[in-house]
Predict the structure.
Amino acid sequence: MTSAEPSTPFFSVVICTYNRAPLVPRAIRSVLEQTFTDFELVVVDDGSTDATGEVVSAIPDRRLRYVHRDNGGLSAARNTGVANARGRFVIFLDDDDEALPDWLRLLYEALDGDTRAVVTCGDMIVDEDARVLRVRVPTPLGPAFANHRARFVSGTFALPREAYHLAGGFAEDLECSHQTEFALRVLPMYRSRGWPVRSVDDPLIRHVLRSPERRIKTPEKILRGTKYILAHHEDQLSRSPRVLADYLAVAGVAAARTGDYREARRLLRRAAITFRRDRTHRLRLVLAHFPPLANLVWKARRYRRSPAAPA
């Protein structure tokens, strides 16, 4: 398949990487082996100190471009990737994930020629032995996300490059939940403009569930990231009380895990009031009044629950 303008690829796939020389070649190969061939691959090296540059540069494919930048974090690297992209649509893949061969073809077909649409797809969680643990598909996201049916995690959404810029790109001062925060801006923008959001239910991305030591976010990052989303999007989140309460609860537990129980109780109290039907929020609030017990519950294990959002 070719675009109307040979110099302008249809997709720009952006892979951002940092000190992942052993892992990133697999993600790159999964893109270069796509059955749909009208794409470019922009690999952004976010200041790696290992052999990432040499490994990527050794891959001989004219569709691959390597961009090096000083370390600035994932969101800044993604924005750099888009700044260097030429494609009509942009899509992101994490450096330790893998796209199935028909990934781009099925997304292209779902667009059905609409150059304004966002298209999203399903994904799967696999263990390090490639066994499928869970399959996830685009779902209705509720009023907080403008009532669209979509999925916004790495590899599962593509949008026009112009729409990416119109939405403002990724928030560079955010340390986690980057794609959820982006969706909170993109999806209402699409609703207000009457632009379509389309979905492919096939799981087209493999996310490898790595050992907790290699993937855990610190409670400090979770707290800062969740409070950032609350500060910038609380009015929108309040359209879905369950979702808003989940964000408050995640921030509350993260505050407890940092030792700030006063802040934890404030946030968990708000969660309990915001969505009274979920008694789990009340139980957390009670637990936060007994720090020694809460430490056993929340600090002895990694807190994995995420807000009910597309990321």
